[in-house]
Specification:
It comes from Lithospermum erythrorhizon (Purple gromwell). The protein is α+β, with helices and mostly antiparallel strands and 84 residues long. 32% of the residues lie in helices and 12% in strands.
Length: 84
Amino acid sequence: MSTLCMYPLNKKANIIDEKNQAVRIEVELLLKADAIRELQFPEWIANVVLVKKPNGTWRMCTHFTTLNKACPKDFTPYHVLRGL
């Protein structure tokens, strides 16, 4: 990803203790599974959003809206990609 793009204006979110514990557990699981790695570009922040599930536990989602707005659009037509 080119870092020449405009940086997203997100700031690190403050999370309450109950949610903070849920995030720590989820991050540890993702790190152990090699699904994520330590952040290399701290300017590029995509904050997490916690959604309470019906069973009372938390689901961790990532909010990429600001990050997506800062990245250049890919205007390659679908039929060109399909032919590759």
